[in-house]
Specification:
Structural class: alpha/beta
Distance between the termini: 15 Å
Radius of gyration: 18 Å
Order of helices and strands: EHEHHHHEHEHHHEH
Length: 202
């Protein structure tokens, strides 16, 4: 069986991870989106809902039965202990689902599994499970412009989210390969991704 590359894809918010993940998928990679998995376990009927309700109270569950993400975000920003308690519930469930998706991709014979992990550097546990790390990089000002435009956030709110992520230099230090996504057109970015993909068996 051909070797499979386990590629970590990361970058600060607004760096273009989702776009690059889609481009890699078009080239034949299997994409595992850690954020999407985390959202999935906290949707109505998700395996994290009952444990969250027991730990934090039903006030943190919406009337539809999902995690009240806005309310939880406010609490987590104000109380680091609450963030750790939430992660203790969600992370093991996310890990199980990511492993299930990775096993499924292996059975399908893909050459590259891309783990799209926004907090790859911050988590500390991911690096040893990956063969390579691709970092999407751009200036802080570019990040701000993209996040404010995309999410309709104020500058202060966007800065708060950026401040909670690993410093840019720390992400770059973890990289095996960097794509600088500042001022590139989509086609220019696609060329960079294609070039990188040849190093990952695609």
């Amino acid at each position: 069986m051909a070797a499979v590359t386990r590629l970590g894809l990361t970058g600060g918010i607004g760096s273009g991870k989702s776009t690059v993940a889609q481009m890699l998928a078009e080239l034949g990679a299997a994409i595992i989106d850690a954020d999407a998995v985390a959202r999935g376990v906290t949707l109505p009927g998700g395996p994290a809902i009952d444990p969250i309700a027991r730990e934090f109270g039903r006030d943190f569950i919406t009337t539809q039965g999902a995690l009240d993400r806005d309310r939880m975000r406010e609490l987590a920003f104000a109380d680091a202990g609450a963030k750790r308690r939430l992660e203790a519930i969600v992370h093991p469930l996310v890990g199980q689902e990511i492993q299930r998706q990775a096993d499924s991709a292996l059975r399908q014979g893909v050459r590259c599994i891309v783990f799209d992990i926004p907090l790859l550097v911050e988590s500390g546990r991911w690096r040893q499970t990956l063969d390579r790390v691709l970092v999407l990089d751009c200036s802080s000002e570019t990040q701000l412009e993209r996040v404010m435009a995309r999410s309709k956030l104020s500058r202060a709110a966007a800065l708060q989210i950026m401040a909670a992520q690993a410093p840019r230099l720390l992400r770059l230090a973890a990289a095996d390969l960097v794509i600088a996504n500042d001022g590139l057109s989509l086609e220019q970015l696609r060329v960079q991704v294609r070039r990188a993909a040849t190093r990952f068996g695609l």
